[in-house]
Fold:
Amino acid sequence: MARDTLSRSMHDLGLAAWFGGTLANAVALNAAAGEASDSRDTGAVANKGWDRWTPVNAGAIGLHLVGSIGQLIGNKGRLAAQQGVPTMAGTKTALTAAALGATAYSRVLGRTVSEHDDVPAESGTTPLNQTPPHVAQAQRRLAALQWVVPALTGAVVLVSAYAGEQQRASEQRHGLRKRVLG
Structure:
């Protein structure tokens, strides 16, 4: 079996940045923006942080996806022969697709908020009564999505750990035996 160090590294580093960056922004940036001296600066602080993170996040996601494709190619024999591997790969693909969708929707909502730097807000995702309704709605949706993306990418991390366990020689023998014996 050939080594897939490059694709595994791309997969893992991209996923780590995607998960960690979105979690850090949800935990720290959005809340810290509320510490601005004026409620009108709150949105500007959060927007600048998220706007700086967006290209890094896009690069991390791209790196992860390229690495994922490399992992699929490198493990095509196991996908065909080892019981449990196709289910794991399908689960991981579905979680990744859901995380991509949530990330894309978050960016659309983020652009709505980002277009209005001087809008008063309590935090990066909490509007005030003075926040325009369409911005307030986007912020409320972002308040939930800021946790959905790290939850989904965290789930991909867990499934990836399980996939690594499936690669143990004892697991491969067991999976192949189950596939052959039905």
About this structure: The chain has a mean pLDDT of 90.
